[in-house]
Amino acid sequence: MALRLCSYRLGLALLLLARPGRAQSGSGGTRPFPFDSLRATVRKAGLPDTERVFKAMEAYQALIYARPDSAPPYVQEALSLARRIGFRRGEANAYGALAGLEYQAHRYARAQQYYQLMLGAAQKAHHTGLTGSAYAGMASMAVNTGNVADGLRYYGQARATFAKAHPRGYNNEVLTLYNLANYYLNHQQKAAAAPLLRQAVALLPHCTWPELPVAVTIGLGQIQQYQHQPDSAVASWQRAVRLGSAAHLDQLVAEAHGYLGARYLAQHRPALALAEAQMGVALARRSQSNEIEVENLDLLAEAMHALGQPAAYDTLRRLQALSDTVHAHENTAALTQAQARFNDVEQQAQIRSLQQDRRLAAQTQELTRLRYRQQVAGVSSLAGGLLLLAGWAFWQYRRRQALRQATYDTALRTRLAADLHDDVGALLTQISLQSDLLREAPAAPEATLARLERLSDTSRRAARQMADVVWGLHASSAELPEVVMHMREHAHEVLPPAGLAVDFAITAEAAARNPNVAVCQTLYLIYKEALHNAVKHARGASQVTIRLSLDAGQLCLSVRDNAPGPAPASRPGGHGLTNMRQRAEAVGGALHFVAEATGFGVVACLPG
């Protein structure tokens, strides 16, 4: 997906760089105009010439997406007036808009010329924001036409210029970092792209363009996948979907769905891949993003094939082939017709031959499609009978499953009630006794403070234990992916406030397992207790490393800190370690502690 979707991103970069008018001049944002009053606004009597230039650029920006054929005259008018009065800033804005129009028309050499003119005007105006935008545009054009060395040099100049702007041009600086990183991603140089994207992420809080957080987050997910962090990559792409959906950025959201679908398909989760591909196809079609739609259609076909639906797979494959063929013939015909004005009679004959070949190919494909439909109709009648038989068998299976589930639910609630009584009840009793001691036995302030701290710690443990029990009650059907998501969220809630960095990873083999509900709940409860112990006892530690892997058919959870100095064989205080071992043994697993030269670790292996 990465190589095939990157061509859209260059278009995004140039559209953002071509934002004209006051957005680049530093005089405020553009204001929308009713279409019937645009010309009257630009022609308003008594308007200063510099203001008239800005009004013409604002009219261009208001029309470029709604009525693109009507927009270019306003740019030409702004350019003519700006050159006549020597208004360099307005001249640079106009050149930038013309460069964007030439890029959209695939006239890259002409677009590069306009960006060079924009650079000269911006430098004469001493406008750092426009100067940086010109460098960035020249870089994109140079890379797009194969002049990579100049392109990378221009990117560096653009980034340095935006960083020196007053106020600092965060939007354009992030966009430049993204463009450069995107070049490295597109050429499989992900190690070079990673630091650039992370720098862009650090600057995102200062940005105001909604496209930037979505595009940068998609690129960050690619880097995380390259660094063998599939869970983090999935989280990044899911965040890109949320941000892009909120901003109605259908093209970027469709791309993020494609990456998620491809990741799920690689993890052998075709049902999730199918859902992501369907969303990607719908959004790409709505935003008329043909390339992204084709990629998501291809992913959809692969997911359906993995789910055992070969008929749908073949249909989508043929649809993609037909679409590619039609587009190729249309492009070839358009090119040949454009050349016909300058060629001889022999070339005209070649055009007619090409058109005949296209019609013949279309007729052949239509005949093939009709034959295929007839075959599908025959297979469908046979499948209908098999479906009825399968439905009856499935009903019998679900009825037996419901009886087993009812028995299991009763046992589960009985166990949870026992946990609530034994664990939470004991902690509440300690709270009561400690409260009575504070009230009835006055002590020095230092001793009183120590008692209050013990009371506070006991209260927190009781609340945490209560939350664990309640979560276990509501998560009686929880599966491993949901538990892993809760584990990741809990780590980021607990460790960073205590000054501990999080290193969380799960292997692909472990993610593919489907343990029973009791193992999932026990895994989560042991994990929470281990994090609590790290926060409480790992003095001087800076990081907690969490790994979930598969070892000899068992799910093994490892939680280690890097506290300095030799660690004790076990850590004093409370019954947390004993409780963890008892929980592991209750489901047929085992738990041991690892005391190393630096740090302390807990390893729990449960039936997978």
TrEMBL record:
<dbReference type="InterPro" id="IPR011712">
    <property type="entry name" value="Sig_transdc_His_kin_sub3_dim/P"/>
</dbReference>
<dbReference type="InterPro" id="IPR019734">
    <property type="entry name" value="TPR_rpt"/>
</dbReference>
<keyword id="KW-0472">Membrane</keyword>
<keyword id="KW-0067">ATP-binding</keyword>
<dbReference type="InterPro" id="IPR050482">
    <property type="entry name" value="Sensor_HK_TwoCompSys"/>
</dbReference>
<keyword id="KW-0418">Kinase</keyword>
<keyword id="KW-0597">Phosphoprotein</keyword>
<feature type="domain" description="Histidine kinase/HSP90-like ATPase">
    <location>
        <begin position="518"/>
        <end position="608"/>
    </location>
</feature>
<dbReference type="GO" id="GO:0005524">
    <property type="term" value="F:ATP binding"/>
</dbReference>
<feature type="signal peptide">
    <location>
        <begin position="1"/>
        <end position="23"/>
    </location>
</feature>
<keyword id="KW-1133">Transmembrane helix</keyword>
<keyword id="KW-0808">Transferase</keyword>
<dbReference type="InterPro" id="IPR003594">
    <property type="entry name" value="HATPase_dom"/>
</dbReference>
<keyword id="KW-0732">Signal</keyword>
<dbReference type="Pfam" id="PF02518">
    <property type="entry name" value="HATPase_c"/>
</dbReference>
<keyword id="KW-0812">Transmembrane</keyword>
<protein>
    <recommendedName>
        <fullName>histidine kinase</fullName>
        <ecNumber>2.7.13.3</ecNumber>
    </recommendedName>
</protein>
<dbReference type="InterPro" id="IPR036890">
    <property type="entry name" value="HATPase_C_sf"/>
</dbReference>
<keyword id="KW-0902">Two-component regulatory system</keyword>
<dbReference type="InterPro" id="IPR011990">
    <property type="entry name" value="TPR-like_helical_dom_sf"/>
</dbReference>
<dbReference type="Pfam" id="PF07730">
    <property type="entry name" value="HisKA_3"/>
</dbReference>
<feature type="transmembrane region" description="Helical">
    <location>
        <begin position="376"/>
        <end position="395"/>
    </location>
</feature>
<keyword id="KW-0547">Nucleotide-binding</keyword>
